[in-house]
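Check the record.
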Amino acid sequence: MALWAGRFSKEVDETVNAFNSSIAFDARMYAQDIRGSIAHATMLGKCGIIELSESEAIIEGLKGILSDIESGKLEFDPNAEDIHMFVEAELTKRLGSTGKRLHTARSRNDQVALDIRLYLRDKMQDILKLIEELAITICDIASEHTETIMSGYTHLQRAQPITFAHHLLAYAQMLKRDRERILDAVERMNECPLGSGALAGTTYPIDRFMTAELLDFDAPVANSLDGVSDRDFCVEICCALSLLMTHLSRFSEEIILWCSWEFKFIELDDAFATGSSIMPQKKNPDVTELIRGKTGRVNGDLVTLLSMLKGLPLAYNKDMQEDKEAIFDAIDNTELCLKTFIPMLKTMRVLKENMRNAAARGFINATDCADYLVKKGMPFRDAYKITGTLVARCIEQNLTLETLPLKQYKEMTELFEEDVYEAISLETCVRGRSSYGGPSPEAVKKQLADLVEAFA
């Protein structure tokens, strides 16, 4: 019989029981539920709300349940309504009436609000470690390619010369923001809802500041209604994860392009690619394709949370049970993607010559050619037009700006001299972009040092 069954004259329909149950997915919060209950029992005993001996017995009983779950001795009851009721029922089975005192001055509403905060706080530490590992991996690869020239792209068209390190570090910067967003969300949610009761607190002389301190929260939630009905933190964390996944998806898209025969800038290790059931030549970047797909799934989790909350009056409503499957799914998929992406990146092979050759064929030094004339006194718009005409001429003759004869340069303007070839060499173009945040080796090394320090 359910612990709340006193008001009811008949058993709940089996289909309703199954529909209502959440233990299939909230059982993962068992450690957080027990930790919260230990803090609550400690506070009840110290405040004299229950006998100190009862508090101590409850704490020992809870520790025993935790140990038995983790050893596999105690299995979750699939018929239990949720993890909170399971733990309390098991405690009562072991301690009798003493176990029934645990729920004094507490509701499942503030209990579940506590558990989800504790669980998210713990899981975000795992995600943050993976973000840091990925960022350091990117920095390690970038440090080997500060002078590896490639084309930067706009509209997926070759645009201007950069280095592979510069390109990679753009993703490290995204990860830096991802980490900051998660840390910010965790800091904001680090308030303890325990003691909010069902919605209106309690008449017992509890000490909410004690339980907050025991559970490493900064303070108790200031409003009991808000304490049980707030799920902003789920939305914030899911939003941060959605952005993180979006960054992984963008990076995955580039890897998919780079390892295609049309680009061939990198080659994935065989351990992180798959083949075709019919085409023996295929080597498919399935990892990165799945990350793109799972990004849509995490984005969907965010929409689920926002949609679930948008029409809810205060305080607790059963709709809020839907928060867990969505945020758990977002966490699980983000964690899985990071754990797969990191070793894939570590083992990929960079094909520097292919990058350099592609950059040489893309007229990505055209801006530098125009700047060459500007530095000799020509207005930029005139220099821009002349360079565009030269590019068109190169295309007609199957030449590049580096191989176009000086005679043809001079036909456009006598300002061109032999030194134009040095000015438009890809190495010169990259070295010259030494402004802060630019792709020159010096600028990239400064950015690299700052990122390594930030993630250290």
